[in-house]
Amino acid sequence: MKIEHIAMYVNDLEKAKEFFVKYFGAVSNEGYHNKNTDFRSYFLSFEGGARLEIMNRPSMEDPEKTPARTGLIHLAFSVGSREKVDELTAVLKADGYEALSGPRTTGDGYYESCIVGIEGNQIEVTV
To answer: Residue 101, SS3?
Structure first.
């Protein structure tokens, strides 16, 4: 069994798509729009087969995304090496995204950084 995809609602669908394409090499489908409900979505595919569905609809709730809450807390992307973790973290920081931690080696042996990415969602960049 495998996870088929993860989905997340976003306020700015186009900006979220651009974020994942620019920084993580996502390939987007053409998008979907249900004209009856005004629901819109893109499926983003990543190297290795993982997929992320980003979605938008009118009247969504947008509560504060605190770092220590229940539910899904971050998306983790493996970039292949410590050097690539360092490089991508530096690019994200230079582009104005806040680094919550790292790059560093965690107590359980991961080399990673954690960034506050698009719309306050945490993104982990790891080997």
So the answer is: strand
CA dist., res. 50 & res. 4, Å (int): 7
Residue span(s) of the chain under CATH 3.10.180.10 come to: 6-56, 74-126
- Which residues are within 8 A (CB) of 8 and not within 5 positions of it... i.e. 6 or more apart? 52, 53, 54, 55, 72, 121
Q: Are 50 and 73 in contact, with CB atoms under 8 Å apart?
A: no
CATH number given to 6-56: 3.10.180.10
Residue pLDDT, tens place only, 22-61: 999 999 999 999 999 999 999 999 999 999 999 999 988 8
